[in-house]
Amino acid sequence: MNKQLILAFSLAALAFHPVWAAPAEPTEAEIADLKKAFNELRPKTGEVVLSDNLATLKVPEGLQYLDPKDAEFIRVKVWGNPPRASNKPLGMLVKSPQDAASADGWGIIIDYSEDGHVDDSDAAKTDYNALLKQMQESLVENNKERIKQGYQSIKLVGWAEPPHYDASTHKIYWAKELAFEGNDENTLNYCTRILGRRGVLELNGVASIAALPAMRAEAQKVIVQVDFNPGNRYADFNQSTDKLATYGVAALVAGGVAGKMGFFKVILGFLLVAKKFVILGVLALVAGMKKFFARHKQ
Fold first, then answer.
1. pLDDT at 257 over 60
2. What are the angstrom distances between the C-alpha of 139 and each of 89, 190, 296?
3. What is the pTM of this model?
4. Which whole-number Å values give the CA distances from 279 to 34, 204, 211, 250, 295, in the listed order?
5. What secondary structure does DSSP assign to 54-94, as a single string?
6. Which residues, including other chains, have CB under 8 Å from residue 215's CB and lie 6 or more apart?
């Protein structure tokens, strides 16, 4: 993948990173609504069918599944991300909703990108260390534009976990360590991709870098417990009728192609989702506390 293409992915992602200001203290009514919504979350365990029989997830022991509505509540109301106009998540895996709302909590967001069948022939011959260097260099250029636009600069520290591709299951996972200007603690994005007949199932773990050991252990459990259902699997691809994606495995790692942006598409390769404002007091709020505080955390 050339530097110009990686830079294009990075610059296009700017449109998805608004400038955030500290949130105002919530009103009594907002606190009541948040408490009510939090108490109405209905985590599930066992076997879960995702999105109209697209795939099946067997929730690993010790984790809980939140449906798309509940996942969006955590992502938006608890973590402080902007709501999605479309392409809602298929769900989220957490230790518990309370844990996801804590300062050191984490979650694995499940998405699906139907951009076509991804040819994985480049996976075995890609030099991921060289790819990382290109991504880092492109991000330096990206930061010049980010600063002009009033955004924080980002440093891609390196692989927290280098890419691993299993050709037999068509699954790949990797982790990036990111440093945001002004933040004391680095951010971890743990990414899993499962290639299917018409698109890619995306599992994105978001946490602080200190959570890498726990995230790695849980992600390894999850990746073997989720797969496309018959008719949607990689082997079900029909060259005569199905669309081929315009990118390969290396592009999935570098930035990929998923978000709709007119004449070309990009995936948010450097920060798929962030815990921008982790509500530290949600646990106390559930117990009846009337006020809570928010901490800025990318």
1. no
2. 27, 19, 23
3. 0.76
4. 11, 20, 18, 36, 7
5. TEEEEPPTT-EEE-HHHHHHIIIIIT-PPPPSS---SEEEE
6. 106, 175, 188, 190, 205, 207
